[in-house]
């Protein structure tokens, strides 16, 4: 995502619950952009050097994200779950004052709104290209009568 020119909206550390049997909390360096969330092992750089494998960097793109839910406050932590489109749930926690859950939700909603606007524009352009009598053409015809 960063290679494509997306700017970082928020950077910091989140804890992600592992998928393993013990379900341990593991710290991940995170970069939130307008396109999604990058999860980076704490000691790895976001843009890997040629000798470094990029396989450990996970990208949670908003196009594959369904929702952010299950927000719960316990002690000093906020716990939340990112639900992916295929149904996979990824659990996170962070200190309450960091506000990661709200930032991720806000960026996801803005991303989905941008996609919806693009879809509407595309549909209107196709309709105008096909010469369908919708939209402004009807209004201009009724205004001249």
How would you briefly describe this protein structure?
With 145 residues, this protein is of the alpha+beta class. It is built from two helices and seven strands, in the order βββββββαα.
How is this fold's topology laid out?
Elements: E1 8-17, E2 25-33, E3 36-40, E4 58-61, E5 65-74, E6 77-84, E7 89-95, H1 100-130, H2 136-143
Antiparallel strand pairs: 1-2, 1-7, 2-3, 3-4, 5-6, 6-7
- Structural class call reads alpha+beta
Order of helices and strands: EEEEEEEHH
Question: What is the strand arrangement across the widest sheet?
Answer: 4-3-2-1-7-6-5
Main β sheet profile: 7 strands, antiparallel
| Broad shape | elongated
Number of helices: 2
Work out the helicity level. Answer: 25-40%
What this model shows, in words?
It is a single chain. This protein is of the alpha+beta class. 27% of the residues lie in helices and 37% in strands. It has helices spanning 100-130, 136-143; strands at 8-17, 25-33, 36-40, 58-61, 65-74, 77-84, 89-95. The protein has a seven-stranded antiparallel sheet, covered by helices on one side. Strand 6 (77-84) and strand 7 form a beta hairpin. The longest helix has 31 residues, at 100-130. The chain is elongated. The mean pLDDT is 84.
